[in-house]
Amino acid sequence: MDHHLLQVVALLTLIAFGGTSWSIEACSPIDLEALMSFKNGIQKDTSGRLAKWIGASCCKWEGIVCENATFRVIQINLPGLISTDTDLSQTQMIGRISPSITLLSSLEIIDLGGLVGLSGAIPDTIGLHLPKLQKLYLYGNNLTGPIPESIGKFPNLQELALQENKLWGSIPMSLGSLQGLKRLLLYSNKLSGIIPDSLGNLINLTELDAHDNALVGNIPNSVGEMKALTKLDLSNNFLSGKMPSSLTNLTAISVLYLNTNSLEGTIAFPSRSGEMSSLGFLRLHNNLLGGNIPSNIGYLVSLQRLSLSNNKLEGALPSSLGNLVSLTELYLSGNFLSDQIPKSLGQLSRLIMLNISRNLIEGPLPQEISSLQNLQTLDLSFNHLQLSAIPKWMANMSSLSNVYLAGCGIQGQIPDFFQTTNSPIQELDLSVNILSGSIPSWIGSLSQLYLLNLSGNSLYSDIPDSFRNLQDLGVLDLHSNRLTGSIAPVFEIEQGIFGGSLKFVDLSENSFSSGIEEIGGGQLSIQFLNLSHNHLEGRLHIPEVLANLTSLKILKLQENLFTGKIPNGFLKLLKLKELNVSNNHLEGEIPEGKPLVDFPESSYSGNKGLCGKPLGPCKL
Ligand SMILES: *[C@@H]1O[C@H](CO)[C@@H](O)[C@H](O)[C@H]1NC(C)=O
Ligand SMILES: *[C@@H]1O[C@H](CO)[C@@H](O)[C@H](O)[C@H]1NC(C)=O
Ligand SMILES: *[C@@H]1O[C@H](CO)[C@@H](O)[C@H](O)[C@H]1NC(C)=O
Ligand SMILES: *[C@@H]1O[C@H](CO)[C@@H](O)[C@H](O)[C@H]1NC(C)=O
Ligand SMILES: *[C@@H]1O[C@H](CO)[C@@H](O)[C@H](O)[C@H]1NC(C)=O
Ligand SMILES: *[C@@H]1O[C@H](CO)[C@@H](O)[C@H](O)[C@H]1NC(C)=O
Ligand SMILES: *[C@@H]1O[C@H](CO)[C@@H](O)[C@H](O)[C@H]1NC(C)=O
Ligand SMILES: *[C@@H]1O[C@H](CO)[C@@H](O)[C@H](O)[C@H]1NC(C)=O
Ligand SMILES: *[C@@H]1O[C@H](CO)[C@@H](O)[C@H](O)[C@H]1NC(C)=O
Ligand SMILES: *[C@@H]1O[C@H](CO)[C@@H](O)[C@H](O)[C@H]1NC(C)=O
């Protein structure tokens, strides 16, 4: 029977039953057959929707919409994420998409997105038989194989969402024929090959997202012809060559992400005011872009976030950066930018994040920076700043809470004025400077302190008792100083009602000598503990209390003065991935069992008296 005959049969059936509800609910027999084949291709449907597809009333089936006049199925709506007024649930279908879906020739919408377990290939001829299809959603599944060439044959497709599958092969050239296409989502697949030139024909495309694939070659110059584009995301591929200059023709663009490729040459920026004036989000980080940051960047007056980190940019920061008054985040780290920071940066009154770390920027810092009253995070680490001292005006920046000034040539004592900043300090990194003197006791009063990194200085003192008050401390790095005394204050931090927050402690390469017995008392949240290269001695042995730290993933105790046996309790440290107790004065049998037996010999070496697996057997 051909389609028309089937429709006639359906119509006759309708007449015969005098328009009872049964007949109105019936879809055309050919659609019914196609839907049953689709159902048969699915082995498991955790939503239970398909189990209720029985009988012939397919127009009433959940997920099916028919056209009233013809009884043809026009929509399959079976997304994995089901939302009702009160509930949101993630369901799953396991199986394949039956090629018979192409018999549903009146379909306008196929939504099989987010079902997680649809596997196999997209039916090869899908584009040939669905002349009315407008939306094809197959995202969020387990589909493999190439995108069929036939997809370019849909005459009316507006949205193609194939993201988050395991599709491979190249982007079919035929996609360029989908002239009515508005959204093309291909991200998070395994697509390779080049971006076809033909995509430039998609003059109504507003969104092209192919990030997280393995695309190679140049970005074709034809992208500049997709004048309706508001979002272009090609990040995380292997694209190379230059940024096409035609990008500046994208007058509507607001999001442009080309980061994490191998783009080289200079950055294509507008040559005059007005071009790309909608661009709000520009990410070009992790490429090989060189040359200067052109002063034309000042034309991008809508920019809110700009990331150019980890490229090969050189020269001075253009003072036109100060025109970007909408900027909230500016990332420039990991380049070869030099000269001083322009005073105009002080005009970026909305700036929240400024990261210029790892460049060749020279001092002094312009005091104008202090007018950035919304700035929360400032990272100027590892430049050629040679600051000598932390500028006093920093204490006047009322939002500043994360301060990264590592490797800035800061000398002398840790200045007092940080104690009185208007905003509570949460992260303070003054590592690899020339700080001397003691760790000031007022640090213990920074009630919101989460990260403290004073490593690689010449600090010479005990850990102040006030550290016991640092309830929010999560990361503490004091390694490579000349600190002495007890490590106990760190492990006696009062715990909030939700338990301890301390996760990472590195006190290695100091001269601490005591306090290790206090460790097990609390701070059960610690995952990384490095006490290596100190003068620690357990009174007789490595304290059994260490075995209380059951969250530990890495424990480094090498190069200390520990004596006695490795406590049996260490067999309770089931999350431990790395242990080093080498070069102490330990003896006796290594407790036998996981995880201790899995570590290499070098974890235990340099202790005259240790024996048992993985070292040699103990003598009886
Ligand atoms: C079919 O008719 C019903 C009732 O008149 C209406 O609510 C529904 O929207 C129509 N469906 C389509 C696809 O036109
Ligand atoms: C996805 O498909 C692979 C085979 O290609 C299978 O091993 C895996 O279990 C599938 N995953 C899901 C979530 O269905
Ligand atoms: C592009 O969009 C415009 C305006 O929405 C519309 O008139 C035109 O038909 C579309 N072009 C194609 C090829 O669909
Ligand atoms: C921008 O578009 C115009 C006209 O559409 C075209 O003449 C010009 O070559 C394009 N510019 C670039 C850099 O491609
Ligand atoms: C600054 O950027 C670098 C490189 O991208 C990054 O490693 C560092 O964590 C950033 N600093 C802050 C404070 O986020
Ligand atoms: C900090 O701000 C106060 C009040 O606005 C001002 O008097 C003082 O001079 C400022 N200090 C620095 C170092 O800029
Ligand atoms: C502390 O700073 C040093 C040097 O800058 C760095 O290597 C280390 O990773 C930092 N520690 C933490 C925990 O971030
Ligand atoms: C101490 O151990 C931690 C955790 O493995 C590690 O991140 C850190 O780099 C080590 N410190 C030194 C100075 O090697
Ligand atoms: C720590 O271990 C000791 C025994 O070694 C035990 O008495 C004590 O209750 C443990 N403390 C916590 C907080 O679990
Ligand atoms: C343990 O530390 C010693 C240095 O004391 C080092 O030689 C050895 O490689 C380390 N072993 C492991 C497994 O980390």
TrEMBL record:
Record's bilayer topology term: Single-pass membrane protein; Peripheral membrane protein; Single-pass type I membrane protein
Biological processes per GO annotation: anatomical structure morphogenesis; defense response; plant organ development
Cellular component, GO, one term: plasma membrane
Keywords, comma-separated and alphabetical: Cell membrane, Cell wall, Disulfide bond, Glycoprotein, Kinase, Leucine-rich repeat, Membrane, Plant defense, Receptor, Repeat, Secreted, Signal, Transferase, Transmembrane, Transmembrane helix
InterPro entries with a match to the protein in the record: Leu-rich_rpt (IPR001611), Leu-rich_rpt_typical-subtyp (IPR003591), LRR_dom_sf (IPR032675), LRR_N_plant-typ (IPR013210), LRR_R13L4/SHOC2-like (IPR055414)
GO terms, molecular function: kinase activity
Major localisation: membrane
Highest taxon above the source species: Eukaryota
Range of residues in the leader sequence: 1-26
Residue ranges annotated for the Disease resistance R13L4/SHOC-2-like LRR domain, each copy included: 275-498
Subcellular location: Cell membrane; Membrane; Secreted, Cell wall
Limits of the Leucine-rich repeat-containing N-terminal plant-type domain: 31-66
Similarity comment: family membership: Belongs to the polygalacturonase-inhibiting protein family.
Name this polypeptide is given: LRR receptor-like serine/threonine-protein kinase FLS2
